[in-house]
Amino acid sequence: MSSPSTSSSRSLHSVQRVLRALIWFGLFFLLGVLTTILGLIVTSIEPFLGFVVLGIGGMAAIILPGMVSSGLYVIPEFQRVVVLKMGKFDGVRGPGRFWVIPYPPFYQSVAAIVDLRVQTRVITAAETLTADNVPVGCEAVIFWRVEAPRKAVLEVANYREAVFQAANSALKDTVGMLDLTDLLGQREKVSSRLETIIDQAAANFGVDVTSVEITDVRVPADLIQELSVQAQSQRAAKAKIVEVEAEKAISEKLQEAAELMGPRAMEMYRLNVLERIGREEGSQIIIYGLTGNDTAMETTLAAATAAVRSKG
After folding, report:
1. How far apart are CA 212 and CA 118, in angstroms?
2. How many Å apart are CA 237 and CA 234, to the nearest integer?
3. What is each CA distance from 296 to 285, 290, 300, in whole angstroms?
4. Which of 39, 75, 88, 98 has the lowest tally of Cβ within 10 angstroms?
5. Do 188 and 131 belong together in one domain?
6. Which pLDDT tens digit goes with each residue over 155-202?
7. Cα–Cα distance, 64 to 71 (Å, whole number)
8. How far apart are CA 49 and CA 98, in angstroms?
């Protein structure tokens, strides 16, 4: 199934072919009629010259329409044509209909037809060492378009290959200057950096790099497992730090509350806590230290508690 761009290009080429054919047939018919009329007139005067005129006119009727019609171009909106005159730059033509005439006094020729649409190219940096000596494979896609047709055609032999090589080199250099964690965790930053580097190089070829996106970073399997263990350890350490900080905050608040509460308030707080504990079903509470300095009472309570436990 053909793409829309291919279909539109074919339709425009069909228009160009139809126009050239119409011009060819029109000139052929016109030259044929003129040759016939002139041949008949000359034949009536001199038969031999009449045949010569008919022969020359017939050849002209066949050759000249093809020479004229081949100079017609119909170029779509997304293309431009770089035209030379006697080998020198003469201009950038298009879009629409125009003529390129290679015959005197014009001596024009088409150097190249350039597509101005945004194009994509996948670049790959295989087994490149990062700054921390980890071999990784990195893949990115660049979006680019021809910005200056004259420079792209006349100042570089193959601007597509030049852009690809510049992008591939920039990707390898960027990967080599980054640690693995930065490459994996800061893809947007790395992509922006790549775009700047490649765009500066591609500007010399008349090409504008509109975007660069890293699509894949391939890391050795054993290293992935190590990174996973390291990440789990880091998460566990952070959880412990958070827990300690929370306990520290609670301790500080309790310390502040203890400093604000007097002995009587503290005693009421204890009784309140005991009352809440005693609400639980089946709970048994033995309290020490609420009788002041009465040693006999404390001894009696301890003996009663021991007796209850021995029966249980």
Report:
1. 12
2. 5
3. 19, 13, 6
4. 88
5. yes
6. 999 999 999 999 998 888 888 888 877 887 788 888 888 889 999 999
7. 11
8. 39
Q: Taking 50 as the threshold, does the pLDDT of residue 108 lie above it?
A: yes
Instruction: Detail the DSSP E strand segments found in 79-187.
Output: 79-85, 88-93, 96-99, 108-115, 119-129, 135-146
Q: What is the radius of gyration, based on Cα positions, of the chain?
A: 45
CA distance 198 to 170: 7
User: In the chain, how many domains are there?
Assistant: 5
Residues 172, 141: one domain? yes
Q: What angle do CA 288, 294, 297 make, to 5 degrees?
A: 60
Half-sphere exposure of 151 (CA within 13 A, CB side): 12
Q: Are residues 93 and 64 in the same domain?
A: no
> Which residue range is the domain that position 51 belongs to?
1-70
Q: How would DSSP label each residue in 283-305?
A: ------S-STT-HHHHHHHHHHH
What one-character DSSP code corresponds to residue 102?
-
Helix (H, G, I), strand (E, B) or coil at 120: strand
Helix, strand, or coil (residue 217):
strand
Number of H helices, E strands in the chain: 9, 8
Q: What is the pLDDT of residue 286?
A: 59
Mean pLDDT, rounded, for 227-242: 77
| Residues 214 and 124 both lie in one domain | yes
> How far is Cα 303 from Cα 34, in angstroms, rounded to an integer?
142
Give the Cα separation of 270 and 264 in Å (integer): 10
